[in-house]
Amino acid sequence: MKITLVTPADKGSRSGNRTTADRWAQILRKLRHRVEVVVDYDGAPARLMVAIHAWRSAAQIRRFKETYPDRPLVLCLSGTDIYRFQRSHPQETLRSMELADAIVCLHDLVGRAIPAEFARKLNVIRQSALPLKRVPPVKRSFEICVVGHLRDEKDPLRAAMAVRDVRESSKLKVIQLGKAHDEAWAASAEAQTASNPRYEWRGEVPYGQVRKMYARARAMVISSRMEGGANVISEAVVAGLPVIASAIDGNVGLLGIDYPGYFPLEDTVALRDLLLRAETEPEFLATLKRHGDRLAPGFAPARELAAWRDLIAKLK
User: Fold this and answer.
1) What is the number of alpha carbons within 13 Å of residue 264 lying toward its C-beta?
2) How far, CA to CA in Å, does 19 sit from each of 13, 25, 57, 105, 259?
3) In the 8-state DSSP scheme, what is residue 78?
4) In 81-206, alpha helices (H)
5) What is the mean pLDDT of the chain?
6) Which residues contact 160 (CB under 8 A, 6 or more apart)?
7) Would you call 85 exposed, middle or buried from its count of C-beta atoms within 10 A (0-12, 13-18, 19+)?
8) What does the alpha-carbon distance between residue 111 and residue 92 come to, in Å, rounded to a whole number?
9) What is the per-residue pLDDT across 99-152, written as a single tens digit (0 to 9) for each?
10) Euclidean distance between CA atoms 141 and 244, whole angstroms
11) Model confidence pLDDT, tens digit, residues 61-77
12) Per-residue CA distances from 199 to 103, 147, 151, 193, 269 (Å)
């Protein structure tokens, strides 16, 4: 089958939208489909469209459905679609949901955040990750990693602030990997690095270096204000890396309501307390890892592949 996959992120971008598009293209090709990844859809023939982002891809979605009204369209909701653009740009965002024959979401709690009439279209497909062998952590510090672009939705410097004033005897050190969304975020991260000896921003790095950090870090912090279902959680869980997360739907929908590693959104003190517990209470860190180990099979590549196979078969 010829499939057009639309993403708002250009080729070469390391944004979540482009990473998701490239990975899904690989999955669909494994299922023996012919896939073209585009940013601007020109009306070229396709038997099915997969569109990432309800608001940013709204024009492409509308053009496909006007050109091929009887052909199926799969819409993937981003975190900003679910938690921002439904309210700030409701006409385009909700129209995309209406036009979609199926809606893909990345975590279990999306259904309670979108209009009830679209819930019947929802298909949860968790983003998968490849296994990773752990290596001995460095001894001079207790490394905590933060992975992702520096932008407002991520509340990216929360971990840096949490370790800034910990007691002198602590070995906590936050290593942050990810591109700054703009110069203001870059300046903030550079200022933190210069003034906070327990924090280091390394900027955007090759994915191999990210995996090396997953392999040796003691834990990962995801402090986001909104998430559609972050792949960094999949990667950390499959790598056996304990996760400490803000208690938002996008994280809870992946880790489960009973996961013991949550802190209230934007609560620096609560995050500091969890990081100190991770450093000083081995059993707490082991508990987080055990929870992650139970979740890991849900992030297996074979499971993601099967979910796409089943969805497309249902739409044929």
Assistant:
1) 4
2) 8, 10, 16, 15, 27
3) P
4) 86-88, 90-99, 158-163, 183-195
5) 95
6) 174, 176, 189, 192, 196, 198, 199
7) buried
8) 19
9) 999 999 999 999 999 999 999 999 999 999 999 999 999 999 999 999 999 999
10) 18
11) 999 999 999 999 999 99
12) 39, 13, 17, 6, 16
Tokens of 201: 């921003």
Residues 32-49: tens digit of each pLDDT: 999 999 999 999 999 999
Token code pair at residue 118: 């679209």
Task: Give the residue among 155, 16, 2, 10 at the shortest CA–CA distance from 76.
Answer: 16
Q: Where are the beta strands (DSSP E) in 119-206?
A: 122-124, 142-147, 172-177, 199-201
pLDDT digits (tens, 9 = 90+) for 175-192: 999 999 999 999 999 999
What whole-number distance in Å separates Cα of residue 172 and Cα of residue 164? 9
Q: Rounded CA gap, 267 and 248, in Å?
A: 12
* Distance in angstroms (rounded) separating the CA atoms of residues 196 and 202: 14
Which candidate, 103, 109, 58, 40, places its Cα nearest to that of 77?
103
Q: d(Cα 18, Cα 24) in Å, to the nearest integer?
A: 10
pLDDT at 14: 63
**Beta carbons of 197 and 74 less than 8 angstroms apart:** no
Domains of the chain in sequence order: 2-127+300-315 (3.40.50.2000), 142-298 (3.40.50.2000)
Distance, CA of 167 to CA of 169 (rounded, Å): 6
* C-alpha–C-alpha distance, residues 64 and 61, integer Å: 5
Q: Please state, in angstroms and as integers, the Cα–Cα distance from residue 166 to each residue in 10, 144, 192, 195, following that order.
A: 41, 14, 15, 14
**How far is CA 93 from its chain centroid?**
20
H runs (alpha helix) in the chain: 16-30, 58-67, 79-80, 86-88, 90-99, 158-163, 183-195, 207-216, 231-238, 249-255, 268-280, 282-295, 301-315
